[in-house]
Write a structure and sequence with these properties.
The longest helix is centred in the last third of the chain and has 18 residues. The strands form 2 sheets. This protein has a 4-stranded antiparallel β-sheet with strand order 2-5-1-6, covered by helices on one side. Strands 3-4 form a two-stranded antiparallel sheet. By secondary structure, the chain is an alpha+beta fold.
């Protein structure tokens, strides 16, 4: 089952300043570990809200666009996310607790949420294309007249 780990924004992440090279290295090691264990399905870091656009709808259904930065509590914003493939909520919590938190990140907040499973999980289009090609080649091979040469 899939679960999303959301890393909430902080005043620090909203400035757009890069983390230390030491913290960046620890994060890369964490992502490598997740990938090696088959847990990590996706991960992305988001730009600060200064680079964002918020769309809100009024009562009459008309959209209003607001360019960032967005006012209010930075903890309402998401700075990054990871998608885990886990069996249980406890497993996801244990992986989330292993995420390195940068120095000076007091008040850092993570949130885990289950992703809605709608039927069978979609597969990568590249893999589906490769499987279709292999099926076609197998069909051609199996339906060749006996004794004919393969091209």
């Amino acid at each position: 089952m899939r679960m999303m780990l959301m890393i909430k924004a902080t005043d620090y992440s909203e400035t757009g300043v890069n983390y230390s090279s030491e913290h960046t290295k620890k994060l890369q090691e964490y992502k490598t570990m997740l990938a090696r264990e088959g847990i990590l399905l996706a991960e992305e870091e988001l730009q600060p809200s200064t680079r964002g656009i918020k769309i809100t709808y009024s009562q009459d259904g008309k959209p209003e666009l607001l360019a960032g930065p967005f006012e209010g509590n930075s903890k309402e914003l998401v700075a990054a996310y990871y998608v885990f493939d886990v069996e249980t909520e406890e497993e996801a919590v244990q992986w989330a607790l292993r995420m390195p938190i940068g120095a000076g990140q007091a008040g850092h907040e993570l949130e885990l949420r289950w992703l809605e499973e709608k039927g069978e999980r979609k597969r990568e289009p590249v893999i589906e294309g490769m499987e279709a090609d292999l099926q076609e080649q197998l069909y051609i091979y199996q339906n060749q007249p006996k004794g004919s040469e393969r091209v």
